[in-house]
């Protein structure tokens, strides 16, 4: 579309500029009638700055469609350099343009954080000269700013113009130490009941010691009774876990049989889209940085309404260097997290949260490739969901199931979890242990509850449970995020150990006041929490014990004294058979039921390794128990590599 195609607009030209040719057949509706007076005024201002009419016309129509300003669309388009644009505004205002700001000359005063969300003004201080006011002029207020400067000409000597991104960068830098201190301490100081900063809180340490000593004494004095009681407890939790997943499988089969699919929520296409923030925490991810940016570039959302923050540790110079050489689009921002313990993903996310401009927010991992339409689906779901639904979980799909038996079983596990178990929990209004990525939030309530716990190794599960106990709810959507699973035992074990350590932290945090937790979650939610978190931990820790006991009972029943163990032993034997082989079967069936034909083909026959998979899962659980004592806040980093072309 050419700017000069519309007679009413070609007349905006001033001076000696010649109007462009008008096409022979006029459009049904002149642009001057289709656009608001404010957009037309902004177009004329841009024309006076020397910007071409065809470009302005496109930006005006985009602004009308997206409910934004011409300026926002122009800067987001990448068709004009931000520094050149603000330099031109400075020239129109008759003030100095300052490309680079010295953050050391900015005081960290109240209100500074507002400039990382909406950069407008800063004060630069100097020890021997009066301070200078930095402004980010806006096109829609250009006339008022010019009028003020004409009324008080002396202001021109104390005002400079800087680009919006530079003001934002300087504000991040100036408040970095105070902000990281607040990030690490805010949840603990405001809601200590919800923070994992202290592993055993109050009486928990005492009760844990008493329980451990009691088990030790009883094991020495009454070994058979102790073994029997421990076995019964493990069996009950194991059985509860099995039944929950069996119910999820039943729901999945029912949906498959009756072709039940979540209805696509209706969307008002005339409504303007909100700003959508996207957070990605990166650490030592230079290898997948380019892949990540390509995936984020493909998101179906107006670029002027995107706020993408790549959150890096400030000493991760290699990842930052790669990102800086990529000529990132204007919607991207690199946020540097100051060095301070704990060095965890949730700390990085919480540090960046105050700077998020979006009403909605999505979290991804460095290796993720989200479906381009995922933001659209999440937005549509939020429009129709009640206000207390503040989180949506997208499913994670593993694309490298063919690489190894570990990745094949990982894919099977994720299919059952994200497309089977979590949808069942959401339908039943039960708490969801969120995945660590592809979470979509309403930003305001997420800030209200304190964001992520910097000290929890599974910030996702912790947040999902905390949301539920505070009266909020989570739901699921269907457009997936694609990931690769670990293919070696060493990498898999490190990742799974971190998860078990975080689940144990989450259980300890939630169980600081069990009676209060039951009141807040309701008895159904409280019971499911115990099954999903405590049951998973205990069944994983006790899996070798159950297998060994099953083997022992099988051996004794094959002897001459086959019935000497009694009825209790026999029923424990039957229950163990159901628990172990039933759990294996439901693990496989739930995963395969939720997979498509290609996914099932990729997994192939390697589901036979499920017993081995569960045994190394037990090893990770025991490793996590010891790590919780020795290094509770050490983050076992999972290395990532780019996807091979044609693999996904």
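Q: What amino acid sequence fits the structure above?
A:
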């Amino acid at each position: 579309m050419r700017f000069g195609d519309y007679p009413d607009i070609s007349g905006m030209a001033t001076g000696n500029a010649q109007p462009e040719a008008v096409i022979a057949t006029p459009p049904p509706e002149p642009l001057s009638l289709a656009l608001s007076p404010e957009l037309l005024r902004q177009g004329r201002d841009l024309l006076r700055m020397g910007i071409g009419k065809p470009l302005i016309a496109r930006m005006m129509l985009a602004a009308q469609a997206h409910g934004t300003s011409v300026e926002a669309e122009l800067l987001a388009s990448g068709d004009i350099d931000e520094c050149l644009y603000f330099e031109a505004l400075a020239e129109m205002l008759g003030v100095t343009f300052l490309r680079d700001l010295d953050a050391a000359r900015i005081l960290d005063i109240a209100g500074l954080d507002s400039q990382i969300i909406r950069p407008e003004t800063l004060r630069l201080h100097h020890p021997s000269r009066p301070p200078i006011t930095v402004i980010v002029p806006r096109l829609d207020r250009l006339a008022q700013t010019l009028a003020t400067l004409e009324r008080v000409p002396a202001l021109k000597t104390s005002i400079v113009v800087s680009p919006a991104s530079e003001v934002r960068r300087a504000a991040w830098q100036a408040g970095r130490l105070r902000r990281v201190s607040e990030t690490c301490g805010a949840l603990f100081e405001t809601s200590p009941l919800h923070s994992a900063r202290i592993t055993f809180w109050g009486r928990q340490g005492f009760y844990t010691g008493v329980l451990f000593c009691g088990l030790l004494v009883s094991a020495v004095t009454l070994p058979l009774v102790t073994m029997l009681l421990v076995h019964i407890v493990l069996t009950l939790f194991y059985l509860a876990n099995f039944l929950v997943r069996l119910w999820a499988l039943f729901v999945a089969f029912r949906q498959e049989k009756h072709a039940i699919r979540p209805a696509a929520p209706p969307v008002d296409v005339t409504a303007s889209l909100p700003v959508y923030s996207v957070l990605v925490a990166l650490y030592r991810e230079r290898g997948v940085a380019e892949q990540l940016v390509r995936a984020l570039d493909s998101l179906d959302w107006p670029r002027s309404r995107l706020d993408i923050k790549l959150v890096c540790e400030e000493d991760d110079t290699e990842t930052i260097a790669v990102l800086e050489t990529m000529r990132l689009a204007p919607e991207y921002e690199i946020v540097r997290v100051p060095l301070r313990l704990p060095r965890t993903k949730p700390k990085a996310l919480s540090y960046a949260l105050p700077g998020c401009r979006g009403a909605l927010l999505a979290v991804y991992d460095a290796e993720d490739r989200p479906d381009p339409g995922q933001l659209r689906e999440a937005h549509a779901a939020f429009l129709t969901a009640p206000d207390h639904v503040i989180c949506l979980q997208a499913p994670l799909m593993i694309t490298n199931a063919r690489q190894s038996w570990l990745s094949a079983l990982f894919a099977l596990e994720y299919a059952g979890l994200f497309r089977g178990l979590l949808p069942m929990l959401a339908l039943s209004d039960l708490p969801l242990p969120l995945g660590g990525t592809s979470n979509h939030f309403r930003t305001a309530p997420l800030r209200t509850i304190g964001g992520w716990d910097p000290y929890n190794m599974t910030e996702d599960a912790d947040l999902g449970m905390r949301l539920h106990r505070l009266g909020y709810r989570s739901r699921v959507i269907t457009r997936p995020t694609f990931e690769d699973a670990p293919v070696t035992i060493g990498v898999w074990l490190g990742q799974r150990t971190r998860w078990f350590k975080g689940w144990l932290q989450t259980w300890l945090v939630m169980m600081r006041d069990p009676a209060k937790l039951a009141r807040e979650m309701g008895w159904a939610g409280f019971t499911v929490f115990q099954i999903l978190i405590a049951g998973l931990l205990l069944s994983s820790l006790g899996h070798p014990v159950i297998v060994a006991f099953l083997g022992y009972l099988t051996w004794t029943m094959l002897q001459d004294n086959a019935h000497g163990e009694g009825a209790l032993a026999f029923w424990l034997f039957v229950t163990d058979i159901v628990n172990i082989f039933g759990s294996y079967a439901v693990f496989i069936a739930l995963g395969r039921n939720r997979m498509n034909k290609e996914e099932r083909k990729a997994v192939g026959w390697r589901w036979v390794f499920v017993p081995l998979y569960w045994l190394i899962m037990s090893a990770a659980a025991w490793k996590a128990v010891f790590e919780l004592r020795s290094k509770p806040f050490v983050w076992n980093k999972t290395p990532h590599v780019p996807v091979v072309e044609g693999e996904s």
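Q: And what stands out in the fold?
A: Residues 265 and 608 are 40 Å apart (CA to CA).
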